Amino acid sequence: MVTTCxxxxxxxxxxxxxxxxxxxxxxxxxxxxxxxxxxxxxEGPQRFGALQRRLEGISSKVLTSTLRRLEERGFVDRTxxxxxxxxxxxxxxxxxxxxxxxxxxxRIWVEDHIDEIA
Length: 118
What we know:
mainly alpha; 48% helix
């Protein structure tokens, strides 16, 4: 039996179904840079440079792409302040804050168990 998941809204989604839109969201949130960016923004709004310094090893291109994807899905708000130079801040939305805690638990679990993982 093939399980499908239509793209329109309905009462039941199945992340195991090939066509379920849940998979795209899972892919976004399970990405290490997304999980780390969300964690970095838990403390409040962050400028791009501050995020890049906090997420050691991320390139500008990857951070831009990650923030754009998080913004498109409603996890992050981007605010532009008219100043010279331009001042842009990224902040978690309510949806972003709601997923921050489960992602924090995952990050803590990884740190606590890394020595046990081969």
